[in-house]
């Protein structure tokens, strides 16, 4: 099995609920344009560097750019040129953060993070893969130009967009991790099983690996069909809360669960996915949860 990388937790929920930031559009990338924001991001990511040092594991820092695409960024005053700049700067920023602990880390890399064009919790219907490739290619090209080692997309809700992103990542020469989210029944929001989603994307444009994110382990387990598809899952980033996406969307307080219990709840997934090489958290998780997952809490 490849060396498993420590990655971060629920960046946006950490920033909002634990650090008091207002994030319009649930976007953290604008923080790169303020001194206060950069200081908070540096502090956030260094906590995961510390976990990687204590765990003796390589570190994967992933850029705070899940919402840095044209539809969301336009609402925040960022045009195409500004988006290219901030996506590139995000890679440089995290490289500098990792360099602060480079002498203690067993290895590190910086990956570019992207998200769906639309909502990360609900499907708006089928997406044309070619249109998705055209839409996401500029962000991926920015990551590649800045020297990112890979790209990861989180919280995809249907297959067409996943195929498009896998194609666009291949176009710019970046290995891609394709991340799907599931509802409480373990299926994608449109009812597709994880097994079917992975098989469909692999048939059209196989990425480097897949991830499952933004769901509690108990939700993922309900959709855990047998099959070779499990070997294609290389990343896991679970939620702290057992609430549904609809409930989380309405929540005004943070449900951060119990870090030790979350690590225990996740263990069956670690057993089921034998090729995991990226392990971190998603909504509601912070450094406490990821440290527990790695046994260094």
UniProtKB/TrEMBL annotation:
Membrane spanning residue stretches: none
Cofactor needs: Zn(2+)
Signal peptide positions (record): none
Keywords, sorted A to Z: Metal-binding, Methyltransferase, Transferase, Zinc
Pfam families membership: S-methyl_trans
Gene3D superfamilies: Homocysteine-binding-like domain (3.20.20.330)
Domain Hcy-binding: start-end pairs: 1-297
PROSITE patterns, A to Z: HCY
Residues that, per the record, bind Zn(2+): 214, 282-283
SUPFAM superfamilies per record: Homocysteine S-methyltransferase (SSF82282)
InterPro entries: HCY_dom (IPR003726), HCY_dom_sf (IPR036589)
Full protein name: Homocysteine S-methyltransferase
Source species of the chain: Nocardioides aromaticivorans
């Amino acid at each position: 099995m490849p060396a498993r990388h420590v990655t971060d937790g629920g960046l946006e929920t950490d920033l909002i609920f634990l650090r008091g930031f207002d994030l319009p559009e649930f976007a953290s990338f604008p923080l790169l344009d303020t001194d206060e924001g950069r200081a908070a991001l540096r502090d956030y990511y260094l906590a995961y560097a510390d976990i990687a040092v204590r765990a003796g594991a390589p570190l994967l820092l992933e850029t705070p750019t899940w919402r840095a695409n044209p539809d969301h960024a336009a609402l925040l005053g960022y045009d195409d040129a500004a988006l290219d700049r901030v996506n590139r700067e995000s890679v440089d920023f995290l490289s500098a953060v990792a360099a602060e602990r480079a002498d203690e880390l067993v290895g590190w890399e910086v990956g570019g993070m992207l998200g769906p064009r639309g909502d990360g919790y609900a499907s708006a219907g089928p997406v044309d893969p070619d249109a998705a490739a055209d839409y996401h290619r500029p962000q991926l090209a920015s990551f590649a130009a800045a020297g990112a080692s890979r790209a990861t997309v989180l919280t995809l809700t249907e297959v067409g967009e996943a195929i498009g992103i896998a194609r666009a990542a291949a176009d710019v020469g970046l290995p891609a991790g394709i991340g799907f989210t599931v509802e409480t029944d373990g299926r994608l929001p449109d009812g597709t099983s994880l097994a079917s989603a992975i098989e469909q994307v692999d048939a059209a444009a196989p990425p480097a690996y897949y991830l499952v994110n933004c769901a509690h382990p108990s939700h993922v387990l309900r959709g855990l069909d047998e099959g070779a598809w499990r070997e294609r899952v290389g990343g896991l980033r679970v939620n702290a809360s057992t609430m549904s996406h609809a409930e989380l969307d309405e929540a005004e307080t943070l449900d951060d669960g119990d870090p030790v219990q979350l690590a225990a709840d996740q263990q069956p997934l670690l057993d089921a996915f034998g090729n995991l090489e990226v392990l971190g958290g998603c909504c509601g998780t912070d450094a406490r949860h990821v440290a527990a997952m790695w046994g260094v809490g």
